[in-house]
Amino acid sequence: AKAIQTGWVSHVLFEPSVGNKIFKNIISKENNIQLLLNTTIKSLRYYTGKWIAELEDSNGGNRTISAPIIIDATELGDIAKMTGVKYDIGMESRNITKEDIAPEQANGIIQDLTYVAVLKDYGKDATIEKPEGYDPLMYACSSINELCTNPSEPDRMWSPDMMITYGKLPNGKYMINWPIEGNDYYLDIIEQSPEERKEALKDAKNFTLGFLYFLQTELGFNTLGLADDEFPTADRLPFIPYHRESRRIHGHVRFTLNHITSPYTQEDALYRTSIAVGDYPVDHHHARY
To answer: Whole-angstrom Cα distance, residue 64 to residue 39?
Structure first.
């Protein structure tokens, strides 16, 4: 539908609050799904053919559930770690993956995360206070403007008006997840505790606020401010950042780039059990560094 083809990063663009309503509507029609919000798994063990999970909600309430199968759908593979499975973090060596683009030696570098922001056009000045440590040169070449004199990606430079519509949403809102000297931020919090993660992510949030301040004060988008009707958070930012990489468990098969580029010559004939076909370039977010 053309109503949601508002930006150019995707043909399907909708507000997070709309996605939330869609998911809740789907779940409401399923009798065998119980949704527990604001709940954390505190411990997990395997006993007599079942996983035993101890849960704690935000009010300190505890409960225990058991199931023969558990699926890790966390952002960073936290449940997988609790089960004791082996996993990798960072770039594997070329000897392991057999990929030409892999490094010869393994390293711990992961992809950048992004603390995405959803902006709303308020029709009046919505400029925020200058974030701590703000430096406009950090964002200068996010688009074509007078401050940009040496772009890191000269072949991928757009005007501010084009850049801002990258994630344009319906109803006068904008998703800010800009990869070219925008709000991508390198931060590896995978093995940190919840408390350490919360503290570290303050820097990522501040970096996104710096980009917002740049958009408002240097590029003229001063009527765009953090949407007040998307996330029920004090800072109006999402609950979590956009993580691009997490723990990768050692499964029965390691899916590599070679299974895509040369599917019929691999030891594992995974193409025989494919359930989907996609087309996207290798998209690694670590360009700023």
So the answer is: 12
Residue 63 burial (CB count, 10 A): 11
pTM of the model: 0.93
**Is the pLDDT assigned to residue 280 strictly greater than 90?**
no
Q: What does the alpha-carbon distance between residue 237 and residue 243 come to, in Å, rounded to a whole number?
A: 15
Q: Is 43 helix (H, G, I), strand (E, B) or coil?
A: strand
Q: Compute the distance between CA of residue 61 and CA of residue 84 in angstroms, rounded to an integer.
A: 26
Half-sphere exposure of 202 (CA within 13 A, CB side): 9
Question: Quick check: 176 and 119 in contact, CB under 8 A?
Answer: yes
- Residues 71-112 have pLDDT tens digits of 999 999 999 999 999 999 999 999 999 999 999 999 999 999
| Cβ neighbours, 10 Å, residue 81 | 18
Residues 111 and 244: beta-carbon distance below 8 Å: yes
For the stretch 122-132, pLDDT in tens is 999 999 999 99
Amino acid making up residue 117 = A
